[in-house]
Amino acid sequence: MTGKKRLFLAAVGPPGGYSLVTPPLGLLYIAAHLREHFALDIRIINQRAAGWTSQRLIKEIVAFEPHVVGLGCMTPSAHVLPEITQGIRDSLPEALMVLGGPHISALQTAAVAATAADIGVVGEGEMVMEQVMRAYIEGGAMDSIPGLIRREPDGAVVRNPGSVPLIENLDALPMPAYDLIDVPTYWRQPGMPTIPRRNYVSLFSSRGCPYNCMYCHNVFGRGFRGHSVERILEEIKCAKSRYGADEIEFVDDCFNLDRKRLMDYSQRLCSEIGPIKTAFPNAIRADILDDETADALTNAGMYYTALALESGTKRIQKLIGKRLDIEKFCNATALCNERRVFTNGFVMLGFPTETAREMEETIRVAADSKLHVASFFRVTPFPNTALFAYVKENAPEKLNDVHYNDMEYWRVKVNLADVEDAVLDRYLGRAYREFYFRPGRIVRILRDYPRPFLLPAYVGMFMKRVLRYA
Ligand code: B12
Ligand code: SF4
Fold first, then answer.
1. What is the residue range of 78's domain?
2. Same-domain check for residues 125 and 254
């Protein structure tokens, strides 16, 4: 085959409901890598950012007449994959259709079999997509690509033996292809921090996490691999100069795991570029944040961070494999509070075997901490996690209530805990009331919320959430 090939990459996610939108970093990394190796005409669409229905997405893909279509998605959006892949197949019978992303990594062959796609990629996509494109363009065999999921001529979906090694040197990957999306589109949409209108670019500065939380999807393995400080600074310079961003947002699994990298980064950012507004809606593990690293990050521009508590009891921390030091967590909230860094806590209620008393303790720890705001989630087991395996083995009947087709995850009614459904509901409501109805907290929110003039909208949103459970 000769000439430029057309590649359409889409992050699948129907609009509506729980519609947070962030740049599709996975696709941006893949596109950047592929165009270094092949002559390609690439189009990238984030379905939710575009606000397109599945039918509209199919129409746009078909109109582009791609040789290869790559679709990525998370499990709560996967229910639209059969319709989308069939729609593409009907109009473009020759196109090679590849699926990837967290949902395919979780459900693997079953995820591909449920669709009309040809191929599925588990885990990191850059190297495998390179091999797939090479085989497609040069006429090579897909069955020799290690770990690739593929549909055989008789329709059976199989997985090739072997697995693809993780990318050790992340800096060898080109910078995510932000030039292929309209960056300001993301500034106007609700993102991860509950702070609207931020001119930001997302960075994924490391892959992999050594912790072992039982509800987590291990997309990037347990070994921590970081981009160099040099590379992070290069991405920040580019975000500022090419896209006009004045803020960055780290969405790593654990940015502060490598203390030396963190300290070097903060020091060099300040001396070589200057501090930049920085949000960590993910990426900071609270019990390894100390005075020195909190200072370094604040000096470098950190003004917002999420800190995940999940449970306030030692027993549940051990059970779920997070093993967070609760005292150090509380200390980290105080460190951020002293530095006026707005903190958002993530808390989960309803772990398997969790008792009412343990939920009370978790709510107390969160409410007594110096977190500014918090979200209390109902524990939901996702396939191919240790949590899912645990529930399947110990209380399989509880999985009957789990469905993933609803983006409004707070409507999911699963209850894995050792309490009646009504009791879990009550605690979810009580958590918000106990957390928010404290004068000290309200004063701190008013003092530190990064966009004071947008605070009424924020408060309204949270009140709705409280009332939903009340
Ligand atoms: C930012 C983020 C979000 C953003 C949107 C992310 C986005 N733009 O895609 C928002 C806030 C909307 C979000 C929401 C949710 N998220 Co989220 N999120 C993340 C986070 C923190 C970073 C994503 C990211 O940018 N990663 C960096 C890029 C480089 O990685 P990547 O996207 O996975 O892409 C690589 C591979 O997956 C693959 N790949 C990806 N797409 C494609 C496509 C093709 C064709 C191919 C071949 C390969 C491929 O190659 C890429 C490069 O190596 C991840 C954690 C993580 N470690 O990734 C969780 C994560 C993706 N989220 C997760 C979950 C559970 C959720 C929620 C369900 C949470 C909730 N309870 O509501 C919702 C679901 C929303 C929905 N309706 O689908 C899980 C995924 C579980 C699953 N089975 O799908 C993750 C992995 C967290 C975890 N460790 O468990 N999330
Ligand atoms: S700390 Fe985060 S990324 Fe690491 S295992 Fe736990 S949930 Fe997953």
1. 5-159
2. no
CATH number at residue 254: 3.80.30.20
The answer to whether 96 and 140 have CB atoms below 8 angstroms apart is: no
Atom of ligand 2 nearest to the CA of 253: 3
* pLDDT over threshold 60, residue 408: no
179 assigned to some structural domain: no
pLDDT of residue 263: 98
- From 159, 184, 210, the end of a domain falls on 159
User: Ligand 1 within 6 A of 167 CB?
Assistant: no
Confirm if 112 and 87 have CB atoms less than 8 A apart: no
- Distance set, CA 270 to CA 87, 300, 335, 373 (Å): 50, 6, 21, 29
Query: Which protein residue has the closest C-alpha to ligand 1 atom 37?
Result: 101
**10 within ligand 2 shell (Cβ under 6 A):** no
Ligand 1 close to Cβ of residue 76 (< 6 A): yes
Minimum-distance ligand 1 atom for the alpha carbon of 21: 12
Ligand 2 contacts CB of residue 253 (under 6 A): yes
| Predicted confidence (pLDDT) per residue in 148-204, tens digit | 999 999 999 999 999 888 999 999 999 999 999 999 999 998 888 888 889 999 999
- Encode pLDDT of 38-53 as tens digits: 999 999 999 999 999 9
pLDDT reported for residue 281: 96
**Distance in angstroms (rounded) separating the CA atoms of residues 233 and 265:** 8
On whether residue 168 sits in a domain, the answer given is no
CA-nearest of 147, 113, 140, 9 to 70 is: 9
Ligand 1 neighbourhood includes 358 CB (under 6 angstroms)? no
